[in-house]
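Notes for week 9. Today we move from apo structures to complexes. The key idea is that a small molecule is not decoration. When we ask for a structure prediction with adenosine-5'-triphosphate present, the ligand SMILES becomes part of the input, just like the chain. The input block below holds both the sequence and the ligand string. Read it once before you look at the output, and try to guess where the molecule might sit.
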Amino acid sequence: MNRPAAVAVRVLRRPLVLLAVLWLLLVLACALHPELVTGRDPVDQDLPAALGGPSAAHPLGTDRLGQDLLSRLAYGAAGTLWGVLVAVLTATVVGVGLGLLAGYLGGVVDALVGRLADLLFSLPAIVILLVVVAVFPGDVTIAMLTFGLLLSSGLIRVVRAATRSTREELFIAAARLAGLSTPQILRRHVLPRLRGLVIVQASLVAAIALVMQASLAFLGFGPPPPEPSWGGMIDEARMVIVRHPWALVPPGLAVALTVLSFVLLGDAARDGATAAWATTKLARRRRRSGRRRTHPTVPAPRHPTGSAPAHPVEPAPAGGPGHADTLLSVRRLSVQLPGGPARGARTGTTVVSDVDLDVGPGEIVGLVGESGCGKTVTALSILGLPPGDGQLTGSCHFAGLDLVRADDRQWRTVRGRRIGYVAQDPMVSLDPTLRVGVQLAEAVRRHTGLGRRPARARVLTLLRDVGLPEPDTAARRYPHQLSGGMAQRVAIAFALAGDPELLIADEPTTALDVTRQAEILALLARTSRERRLAVLLVTHDLGVVAALCDRAVVMYAGQVVESCPVTELFARPRHPYTRGLLAADPHRASRAGRLPTITGTVPAPGQWPTGCRFAPRCPLATESCRHAPVPLDRLGPAHAVRCVRPDEDRVAA
Ligand SMILES: Nc1ncnc2c1ncn2[C@@H]1O[C@H](COP(=O)(O)OP(=O)(O)OP(=O)(O)O)[C@@H](O)[C@H]1O
């Protein structure tokens, strides 16, 4: 059985939902073919039988004109359902459309849509509707269109809020990084996430619209008699409520059961829609255990003494600040995020300042530092997507194009196509609602222009290339059905879909267990070697740097403090912070004794000292270090350090 069918069967196993579905099917059958339910004409009058109870001739009794209540109910269903459909469609199209745009685009669009929603919400619906039915008497379509519009304000708000939070999800960032346009992201990635929410809201709109429609008919604004309508029947029953209370039961029950069925079905459909991709308990457990940070057991450092090359491939290019053979050249890159360190402050906060770094073709460069030093912000800023709509200054030349000044059209040719991105947690960077193969094929087709069939073949090749032995099976899975290691391989395949020249990988092994870490690192090294792929690898792990990288760029408090070939980093680190990091590296520590640590913590952005930012934690700091900012000085063609005393060898312990 295929997945939607299996979900439908599971949902229909609930007795109440099954009853609701049967009832709604009956109402629908009445609306489409009332003659199948009753042989009587709804306007035929049988005066001798007026105000009669249920009988063989009239199973649900008659009204004061002797009209058969069953046939009036059956023939009234069409108008009732039509009104509900108009209201639901109007509210859903307007609510979802505007809510999506406001939530995704933000800014002026959000403000305008927000005001419109407030306006619609503040209008007294019943008064507006009475005016509309007075101007267009008996026109259910216009009345329900108006009502749907008024009800859309609620949908606008919930869809906007859900879109805003979905927009912050990493898989949306990944989709933008992969070069998808806004309509594609909304259609493929955001809308499916809102399915459950929209279904529930639409079912509520249906229930409210039905009640409102009946109320209008009850007030005499429904279809003119003798045309049958459920609300009109309730009005008729009201007139004879004392003499013949039974007349109220059939239409009242029909309205109540239909409202209840809409709500029950809405809930069930929501569960069904989300069940297709919702995280299973197993996947949740896997993810939780995967997130637990493990100590690195990456291949042991290849050259802690500086004797062997770091990258197990061809020799690295000359490397170093400003070398000619660069693919990516970042100069004085600063990132300012909106808001200040103090709550409500109007000024921005600089979280990364004056970063210089280079990556050559085929080179693997490690961006290292403690948590909060600015590694991720730097990586995302290179991709033009700093967190929180940050502002960039400086330059970032990639194969001749300054990415800081690139426009949307230029970004579409770069993101995903020439620069791939692998996020920290692959589970959250893959869209949970789509099968892996579908997501990959979409990326392949977009970047390469291949047709459906060749794109599918390429997907299987990519999955095989990243070490998945059964690519067919992997392609059919949803992200939550993958193990952590498989998901990271898929994420790497995703990043390679456009055959990029540069891969930016942000702690790609953090969420994995130790065995998988080593496998993924080996995969990155092999991929870089085979494709001559440049890699900027964000990591806090010097073991990974030693095993994989050609050069290292050490960051501290938003700045680069040292940049050099990995051999030099391990043989003769020049910045006290680098020395502190190396001394605190568990791979290099001797078994006996305590592991040295760097005392203190990284200062938060906005609290950086005026002079050397590391001075408060540095054992070598003197008064002169604290007076003025320290520049990044060249010590050699490939070595730069931000320290006034680079030749002293004590560690920051
Ligand atoms: N969206 C944001 N809004 C405000 N501040 C942010 C935001 N994202 C990052 N920062 C701040 O920017 C600084 C650098 O963060 P970043 O994530 O780049 O550090 P990191 O070195 O990558 O650390 P980690 O290894 O923990 O990811 C931190 O002080 C962080 O609090």
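The CA atoms of residues 366 and 545 lie 6 Å apart.
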